Amino acid sequence: DGGITQSPKYLFRKEGQNVTLSCEQNLNHDAMYWYRQDPGQGLRLIYYSQIVNDFQKGDIAEGYSVSREKKESFPLTVTSAQKNPTAFYLCASSISRARGYTFGSGTRLTVV
Amino acid sequence: QKEVEQNSGPLSVPEGAIASLNCTYSDRGSQSFFWYRQYSGKSPELIMSIYSNGDKEDGRFTAQLNKASQYVSLLIRDSQPSDSATYLCAVNYYAYSGAGSYQLTFGKGTKLSVIP
Questions:
Q1: B28-81 residue pLDDT tens
Q2: Looking at chain B, which residue has its C-alpha nearest residue A104?
Q3: Nearest CB to A90: which of B43, B95, B103?
Q4: Cα(A107)–Cα(A75) distance, rounded to whole angstroms?
Q5: pLDDT tier at B98 (50, 70, 90 boundaries)?
Q6: Residues of B in contact with A102 (CB under 8 A)
Q7: What would the DSSP string read from start to end of B36-49?
Q8: Chain A: nearest CA to B16, how far in angstroms?
Q9: What pLDDT score does B86 carry?
Q10: Helix, coil or strand: residue A43
C-alpha cells in the first residue's frame, strides 16, 4: 500500500543534542513538507521541497535542517539551536495542489 | 501573511444533529480548499476538497464555498460520536519564494464533540 512512513513514533532528545526524524513516501509525489504542531497553535510549516535537491524554508525554519537527496525521502534534523523542540512533527506529501496533502502518522518529540 | 480563521470551539452537538464548521480566509487568489479531520494524538486525514463556488456532497459531509465572501464551511449530517475530532480548514495559496510553489495554510482547527 502506498503511503508516508514517519519514524520513530516517539523520540526523546537531551539538551544540546541533534536528532533526525525520518520521512519516507512511496506515493511518487514530487512535493514534501514538514510541519510542527503545538497545542492550540495549528500546523506551522518548517521546510518544504518541490523537487529532489531543492528545498525552501517555511515560516519557522530556525533550528531545523533538511535534505532531499532522493524523491522518496525528506529527513528533518532538529538541531541544538532549536530551543523549544517539544512538539508533534508531521511530514506530508502531495502530487499536485489540487489534491491536498497526505500526512504521515507523525513523530512526537520530547526534550528530557 | 496568508490567514485562515476558524472558531476553536469546542462545538458540541447531540448525536444525529447537523454540525456546522466555518472557516474564513484572507487570500482572494486561493483556488483550492480542504477539510481535514484530526483525532486526538493522530495525524490529519483529508475528508473533503472543494474548488468551485457552491456545495459539494460526499456521504454525510457537505462542503460549501463562497469565494466572494472568502468563506468555506463543512456540514456533517447525522453526527455520530465517532465524528468527535478536531477539524482543520486548509487553503491553498501561491508562495513566491524560491522557485515558487503552492502551499497549504491551515487554520488552528475547531474541536467537535458529538454527545450520545
A1: 888 899 999 999 999 999 999 999 999 999 999 999 999 999 999 999 999 999
A2: B43
A3: B43
A4: 12
A5: low
A6: 46
A7: EEE-TTS--EEEEE
A8: 28
A9: 96
A10: strand
